[in-house]
Design goal:
mainly alpha; 20 helices; transmembrane
């Protein structure tokens, strides 16, 4: 009865508009208090203990650092320089700017690892450029939102860091390596419908008349940004630093590029950058800590085992259960942010991974890829909200375009489901 109450209280608060973190924490605390009436050992001291335990994990230190890296590179103008370099490579013409937007967003994923941050950074540059070239605002917002969704797959990824904390045996380096090829596959899947739609509907007719940036000049200007993922990922692979230490190195590298090389960041800008990164990091980490209370309630109230047994005994089999789980995650992604989905449902799904002997790294990539699709699937897609705000267009205007991109990325997810080696080959090759 108390276990059912846990979900009823949580869902009621969510429908009432209570923030996701508060709903998780209050529902868990309420059920702990009720259970305490019958069992003395199950006291309310579990609330502060699990609040701290949710945060007291070393890999989580990387989250505020990578969020700060995204803010620094956003302010330093790296995205604009990468766009010029990409345009210099692919040239001008119908459908080329959407291709550039997706490519640059994927590359930015190798710096910040945050979808909304990349949607803001790339959208601020690309949506205006696409508008000047004659692309509809709804289409531009759809492309940027879909492209930014690949960032939680391409390392470094905040989502993979959270997943590694929740799942024993899923190391951050292995998840980072496993996410690279599926992230690239998802980006390529987005490029096909984006370019096809642009050419089919005659978009970007003014694009060919715009000047093409000189290659060598744009390469020199973009070189410092191009070197950032090499430093972050190469340093981890060479063993120079851990993923958490890599995030700190990336912060200082970004400050050096912004303040010394490009001189686009001044001392006065640091306060705004730190405040912006601090606010976003605080939101993420508070949700993580409050989810620790919810997860403790799930496990101690005995919710997980009955749910697992009911699913296992449903007769659907391993493949049927996996497809059902992915469909559920896709629907949830339309309404909740990715971190919240992982925190709520991964503890419930872990027993299924053990029972069906799913590879935890492969399942992590599938989970994050499905959540990524939800980040730009209407009606409550966070990336699409950011891109639509930048494009100054209602989200309803993106639907006819964004559903094609959702379909393409879903095909990429099904390919990773069918051929696990797309995700597992690289971590096995690297010895993770």
């Amino acid at each position: 009865m108390i276990a059912s109450l846990l979900f009823i209280v949580f869902l009621t608060m969510m429908m009432a508009g209570v923030p996701i973190g508060a709903a998780l924490g209050l529902a868990g605390a309420a059920c702990i208090a009720l259970a305490n009436a019958d069992s003395q050992w199950f006291g309310l001291l579990a609330v502060p203990q699990n609040f701290y335990a949710g945060l007291g994990k070393y890999p989580l230190l990387a989250i505020p650092m990578f969020v700060l890296v995204g803010s620094i590179f956003d302010r330093s103008g790296v995205a604009a320089r990468l766009v010029n370099f990409a345009v210099a490579i692919v040239g001008r013409g119908p459908g080329m700017l959407p291709l550039v937007a997706i490519g640059v967003a994927m590359f930015m994923g190798g710096i910040s690892g945050s979808g909304p941050a990349t949607a803001a950074a790339v959208g601020g540059v690309m949506i205006a450029a696409m508008h000047r070239a004659g692309y509809p605002a709804g289409f531009s917002a759809s492309v940027v939102a879909g492209a930014a969704a690949t960032d939680i797959l391409i390392p470094p990824s905040v989502a993979f860091i959270v997943y590694s904390v929740l799942v024993p045996g899923a190391s951050v380096p292995a998840l980072f390596a496993a996410g690279l090829f599926p992230g690239v596959l998802a980006g390529l899947a987005l490029i096909i419908p984006a370019v096809w739609l642009a050419r089919r509907h005659g978009m970007g007719q003014l694009e060919a008349s715009l000047p093409r940036p000189p290659f060598w000049k744009s390469l020199r200007e973009a070189a410092w940004g191009l070197a950032a993922p090499v430093l972050i990922l190469g340093g981890m692979r060479m063993g120079w630093f851990t993923p958490t230490e890599a995030a700190v190195v990336a912060v200082f590298y970004g400050l050096f590029v912004g303040m010394v090389v490009h001189r686009s960041i001044g001392v006065r800008d640091l306060f705004d950058i730190l405040r912006e990164a601090g606010e976003l990091s605080a939101v993420i980490l508070i949700v993580v800590s409050l989810a620790g209370i919810f997860a403790f309630s799930l496990s101690t109230l005995g919710v997980i085992d009955p749910i697992t047994q009911a699913i296992v005994n449903s007769g659907l089999g391993s493949t049927g259960i996996l497809l059902l789980v992915l469909a559920l995650l896709l629907v949830l992604g339309m309404f909740l942010d990715g971190i919240s989905i992982l925190l709520i449902f991964v503890p419930l799904l872990y027993p299924l991974m053990v029972h069906y002997q799913w590879d935890v790294v492969w399942f992590g990539v599938l989970t994050v890829l499905t959540v990524a699709i939800g980040q730009f699937t209407p009606p409550m897609a966070v990336n699409l909200m950011v891109a639509s705000k930048i494009a100054q267009v209602r989200m309803e205007a993106t639907t006819r375009w964004v559903l094609w991109l959702v379909l393409a990325m879903t095909v990429a997810m099904l390919m990773v489901l069918q051929w696990p080696q797309i995700a597992l080959w690289l971590p096995h090759k690297l010895g993770y």
